[in-house]
Amino acid sequence: xxxNTITIADNLCPATEFLKLFKGKWTVVILSEIxxxxxxxxxxxxxxxxxxxxxxAIRLRELESLDIITxxxxxxxxxxxxxxxxxxxxxxxxxxxNMKDWYNQFQL
Length: 108
Hints:
- The protein is an alpha+beta fold.
- The protein is built from 5 helices and 2 strands.
- One of its GO terms (molecular function) is DNA binding.
């Protein structure tokens, strides 16, 4: 007879995998800025002063590949691109708001 044992680690696996999606120093900040309407590359660079261009480009590509943001070309010459949250990305607002509330409640 085969028994299936579910461990604590198994129950936490989705949470662990979720947190892995937001690895990197800038991911949450970038998402917050896009949500606030700073969704052009130049605006993101201006509103996140410590980020370098390479890091921003890498994070934007990662978020796009996860279908959390979309990249929309507004004009070709000069190239203008806007980033917007997808439906999946918009649903993260509730998650991040809850995390912020938890953090503030416990003053960590």
